[in-house]
């Protein structure tokens, strides 16, 4: 998901500066008079606004909660990027991630600068430097901050970042306003320890999606979320309706990837890998199965995993994803809230005794990710460890808590 937004931001850069056509200097005013010649500019969805020069015009970025405007000469531009903290519209799970994404996407190289006063935001910081566009390098003043509703990046760009332009930018920032939309959520179940347990089993992925692991399914249950999760289920699971939802859940509970893992181990053992020394396994796999170096290394690693953890090494991967699916099914409207919670309880009661702690369950999930993706799970492990340090740590709920129906 992060790569998708990075590509989108890069595309926006080309559109913005290709349209505004940076040219010479636009002239200046004294900072005290600037507000008098400004007017309010709002995001398309009306969730945020800021005051800019009244003669500036808006450029459509195709994202309802972003804003772009520039002057008529085209040598000054403003971009507001908003990443809502909840829901499926967010592309950053924290302020640092937004900063990193912004800098990478706009090739922004800046140093710490005096931050403006933005009464509605906290943690406001600023950087001044240069950014690369398709039309060359321009000066930039980037401001970062957050509200309870969203993370923000405000970019002021100009071909000549003089003191008057900076003063104008700070005046604009002082007029930032936010109009948080009233949230619709049809969920009725309370966030009890049992529901927290369900959520924790797939909190790593929920956080990677930029969603809320304190909600069953990660999103508010409403029409927008329903459409988004239905699309996600089509793209990642080929689930299109209740029948395919049932079929996929049945598959992951009865087979999943753990059966494929055991089958692969069986094939390796039938070929005699058990009698081959650890240092010779890669050569054996290349010779016996015609594998290239990378594939041979992968299966050697999987066999090491089996020797260390047994044939149930990746079971947690399937179980956590089964619980994740039920959250999706509820938000997508394929299961009622009661159906999704009841089935989650059945699965959780079966899974809980198979592991002794969150660390053990989540590590099994990570091993399954490695098997499925054929890549390292280090990034996901880092997310798990970071989640445990948060004030709302989803793993603070006792792994061995008594799971019971509370809805």
From TrEMBL:
Keyword tags: Signal
Organism: Candidatus Acetatifactor stercoripullorum
A Pfam family per the record: DUF1266
Signal peptide interval: 1-26
Ranges where the DUF1266 domain occurs: 233-396
Signal recorded as keyword: yes
PROSITE patterns linked to this entry: PROKAR_LIPOPROTEIN (PS51257)
Protein name: DUF1266 domain-containing protein
